[in-house]
Predict the structure.
Amino acid sequence: MTILPAPPNTGIRFRRVDLEGKPEIEARIENVVETARSTTLGKGNVKIHTVEHVLAALAGCGIDNAIIELDANEPPVGDGSARHYCRLIESAGIEVQPEQREPWVVTEPIKLELGDSLMTLLPGNPGLRISCTSADKQGRFTQFLSLDVTPESWLRDIAHARTFCFFEEIEVLIRQGLIKGGSLENAIVIRDDAVLTTEPLRYPDEFVRHKILDIIGDLALLGRPVHGHLIALKPSHTANCALVRLIDAQIRKPLAAAQAFAPPPEDREQTQPRSADTSELAGPPALDPLAVMKILPHRYPFLMIDKVLKIEGEKVVALKNVTFNEPYFQGHFPGHPIMPGVMQLEAIAQAAGILMLKRAENAGKIAYFISAEQVKWRKPVRPGDTLVIEVELIRARAKIGRARGRCLVGGEVVSEAEVAFMLQEG
């Protein structure tokens, strides 16, 4: 692993130098694909496992921008703590960049209950304070620690805490193909009342300190520092990441509301409908309107796909002719008709549903829209525009699908999003 400097506003990115094209994955919550025992990032078929320790080291040391190059699907485990990463950062030095850092300040309580985990984020702290209680399901080795997270307290009180597991968990983890490189060199094992380790505990309460280390690493997936007081009871990577999703949704809410409901300023150059990209629309469709209705259960006024232009593997290109007869133009907005952004989002979701529902085993099922992330509305869509919807299925497991899509008018992107949906019997 090599940690490289990066220009302002890059954020933290992982780069797989062992794969063709050296694909990159941003350390953002929307790229989290697994949280069993560790946090895994993924895009398409590319995955990077156990990212929380290196992310915690960067966040704890105050690093906002860096490229992490890897020649494998996981950072080096080291001794199970963030100690070695911090030493690398310290030896390289830190450069202050000119751009202003923008922390997210908690203004109202956020509460999350997930399984045995309880996470409560409160306002009123000038920086980040974490109060954490760690314990197993039987309440063994219960530990508590509360501290303000600063670069000094991070290096002194948290960075050296090693990962740990209970002896009875090991067999299950091995069967799942996990902890293949696990040993007492990089983890503490608790068996009954005995603590198995190659050296004395680095802190009397090392377990709760490592839980705080994991929280700091997972919080870094927000992409900006958090100022508030986090009270965590029996945290886990799943609960940590769920909390970050709640924070991210709260940050996006005002922007999404403004984009969805406020009329955009008048654009004199765009008062005429934009012509479609004729090369994209040429040729017979892959699915005509009747064929679309055999796959999708939607009907007027909520069918957002007129026809499917082409389907190639896990990609689909569909079309929606936006006419003045659309019922939503009566109120959105009188005298200034604009296609609502949420209808474009629905078009992306319906195109994604076609990719799943066209499979023989899914015939007759219904795709329920369950979430949307990275939603952006870039330009207004008006009556007379031809909306081209491009969607790629990036994940499909059993009943759950995830897709990335965008809408275009005249070759220009007008909106984009990642959507998730669940298949159920019709």
Q: What stands out?
A: The radius of gyration is 25 Å. The longest helix spans residues 237-261. The chain has two domains: 2-258, 263-425. Residues 266-273 have pLDDT under 50 and may be disordered.
